[in-house]
Design goal:
about 325 residues; binds guanosine-5'-diphosphate; alpha/beta; 14 helices; single chain
Length: about 325
């Protein structure tokens, strides 16, 4: 017999990784059970610190994520890892490499690792990722690390789901400049200059500092931390920065504000998706065609017709 949503959520809370995986699959596939799952999750969310890691492919996000997982585990924290591929509608090769890097943690019951492909069209990303985060949150994760694969606007969108966003750059990749162009500087709470074992790390850090000094200074000053993720160097400093940012978010009231904005975005995305789907039903049902006929016949102006259409969709 199929487990009810409430049962699945209970199992996930008790630490059953299969229940967690099942719930995330339900979310990803937009299962009809999703509504019920969402309702069952709600009383158990709000605890996890959501940390987004973003930056160009190859900069060291997966390596840094693996190192952070190890640090959080040594503190006894439960950790979720969500790798979101914004670059294609399919889980591709990029994520395969990440799985290899995550192998150390694959058998650890205190770590949930999940790859998700964003569907690459409006609505896909906006509802599935926050729900997957809720699953991991409800499953008792103290921290969820969200690694985005892919670049551009979708990445910025994923980053906006995080409480704390870490932007990684590497020396000699022109990353700082690219980040500035893509509007990524504004979303960074913590900067990491990874591959600091390579030439030019100090120059990259300096460039970042200069770019930051040109921008608006908020109350939070994003620290710039040099790391060699492949050797675990600088990871303690990153952990400290994440802790400090989280404390600042709580003390300043920003955590609550961010979460409200996110919830509003999510509600809107769900509502728009529902409306669009009902609009399709209306099209199929002929109301739109009938209204179009009246507009062509000069009986109705298009604004009045749109009002009738909306009334038809929402009634
Ligand atoms: N030299 C050096 N290589 C690194 C460092 N961190 C990661 N790498 C290597 O850079 C490559 C890309 O790393 P990965 O974590 O997959 O990057 P991602 O695409 O951002 O997830 C891998 O071969 C890593 O071993 C570092 O600090 N120094
Ligand atoms: Mg990666």
């Amino acid at each position: 017999m199929r487990a009810t949503s409430a049962e699945l959520v209970e199992e996930a809370r008790a630490g059953d990784p299969r229940a967690v995986a099942r719930l995330i699959s339900l979310v990803e596939n937009a299962s009809p059970q999703l509504r019920e799952v969402a309702a069952a999750l709600m009383p158990h969310v709000g605890h996890a610190h959501v940390v987004g890691l973003t930056g160009s492919p190859g900069v060291g996000k997966s390596t840094s994520t693996a190192a952070l997982v190890a640090s959080y585990r040594s503190r006894g924290c439960r950790v979720g890892v969500l790798a979101v591929d914004t670059s294609s509608p399919f889980s591709g090769g990029a994520l395969l490499g990440d799985r290899v890097r995550m192998q150390d943690h694959a058998t650890d019951a205190g770590v949930y690792i999940r790859s998700m492909a964003s569907r690459g069209h409006l609505g896909g990303l906006s509802w599935s990722t926050p729900q997957a985060l809720r699953v991991l949150d409800a499953a008792g994760c103290d921290v969820v690390l969200v690694e985005t694969v892919g670049v551009g606007q979708a990445e910025v969108e994923v980053a906006s789901l995080a409480d704390t966003t870490v932007v990684l750059v590497a020396p000699g990749m022109g990353d700082g400049i690219q980040a500035a162009k893509a509007g990524i500087l504004e979303i960074a709470d913590v900067f990491v200059v990874n591959k600091a074992d390579r030439d030019g790390a100090d120059a990259t850090a300096r460039d970042l500092r200069n770019m930051l000094s040109l921008g608006e200074r908020g109350e939070w000053q994003p620290p710039i931390i040099k790391t060699v993720a492949s050797r675990g160097e600088g990871i303690d400093e990153v952990m400290t920065a994440l802790d400090r940012h989280r404390e600042w978010l709580v003390a300043s009231g920003r955590l609550d504000a961010k979460r409200r904005i996110r919830a509003a975005d999510e509600i809107e995305a769900i509502a728009v998706t529902a409306l669009r789907s009902r609009m399709g039903d209306v099209r199929g049902g002929g109301l739109l065609d009938e209204l179009a006929g009246r507009v062509v016949a000069g009986q109705l102006d298009p604004y009045a017709a749109a009002d009738e259409l909306i009334a038809g969709v929402t009634s």
